[in-house]
Design a protein that fits this description.
Blueprint: E1 9-10, E2 22-24, E3 45-49, H1 53-65, E4 69-73, H2 76-84, E5 90-94, H3 102-111, E6 118-122, H4 127-135, E7 140-143, H5 148-160, E8 169-172, E9 175-178, E10 183-186, E11 189-191, H6 195-206, E12 212-213, H7 214-220, H8 232-244, E13 253-256, E14 260-263
Parallel strand pairs: 3-4, 3-5, 5-6, 6-7
Antiparallel strand pairs: 1-2, 2-4, 8-9, 9-10, 10-11, 12-14, 13-14
């Protein structure tokens, strides 16, 4: 586990307001650096969403000592609001949070076009959990307990990545989905999608050629943790197929009766 740094200062407000909570080590606050150019370099801004205060204090102290400006949110609802407000260069999000699950936060931000790099923290270290965290939009996954040096190294690696992700525009055959502009087109034809249809199509395009069951779609697109008796997927898929595949076009979305759906480029 991380070890506490002696003497770090908690600059969070204790008047009941959760907005603007800041945790910063004293050495990172308005001190002169030995490096002549350091004062001209902005501090990297990190949003930490972690419900365990002791863990959050340790992370904030460690990163504050290394020149990060750390903003803290103690639950998922507050964390999502802070993430939406922008300003963070990188985010560290705990997997299990009160109010809203960490992966739901990441999926929501991705659905809104937010591509801020995310490191997922979790006590769940199973392979399928790590895979799920990455597929939900996390850029890296670190299991607890962890060493401070590894946490910092992973965050620094995320900050070194190019700002433009190569998959901000998804393409399958003539179908194109722009995740930043939130637009969809098939060839020269623009497709008007509702937010849920956009998320559904994005999920399918990232898994082109794969059989996607209704259970998978309910869990990953609608975030259901159980499988209700509903025709929700079929209703939305029917509308999406009508928009993607016009009568004079080769079909791209196939309904495999009793199994699920597949998105493929036209043969």
């Amino acid at each position: 586990m991380l070890s506490m740094h002696d003497g770090w200062e908690n600059n969070s407000r204790d008047d009941g307001e959760s907005d603007g909570r800041r945790l910063r080590a004293p050495g990172a606050v308005e001190t002169e650096s030995a490096e002549p150019t350091a004062e001209n370099e902005p501090m990297p801004r990190l949003l930490l969403i972690e419900d365990d205060k002791e863990t959050a204090d340790e992370i904030a102290a460690e990163l504050g000592d290394r020149g990060f400006d750390v903003s803290w949110a103690a639950d998922g609802i507050e964390g999502l609001a802070k993430a939406r407000s922008g300003g963070a260069d990188v985010m560290v999000i705990d997997r299990l949070l009160p109010g809203m699950d960490g992966l739901t936060i990441i999926e929501t931000l991705w659905g809104e076009g937010n591509r801020t790099p995310v490191l997922v923290l979790s006590a769940l270290g199973a392979v399928d959990e790590r895979v799920r965290g990455l597929r939900s939009g996390g850029d890296d996954y670190l299991t607890k307990p962890f060493a401070a040096v590894e946490l910092v190294a992973r965050i620094e690696a995320l900050l070194r990545r190019p700002m433009e992700s190569p998959d901000t525009v998804l393409r399958v055959g003539p179908l194109e989905l722009d995740l930043i502009k939130r637009t969809a087109r098939r060839g020269e034809r623009m497709i008007d999608l509702l937010p849920r249809e956009f998320r559904l199509l994005e999920y399918m395009m990232r898994r082109k050629g794969q059989m996607l069951t209704r259970a998978m779609l309910l869990e990953e697109v609608w975030n259901y943790k159980f499988l209700p008796q509903t025709n929700l997927v079929d209703v939305h898929m029917g509308r999406l197929r009508h928009k993607v595949d016009e009568p004079n076009e080769l079909p791209m979305i196939t309904n495999v009766r009793g199994v699920g759906f597949i998105l493929r480029a036209p043969a």
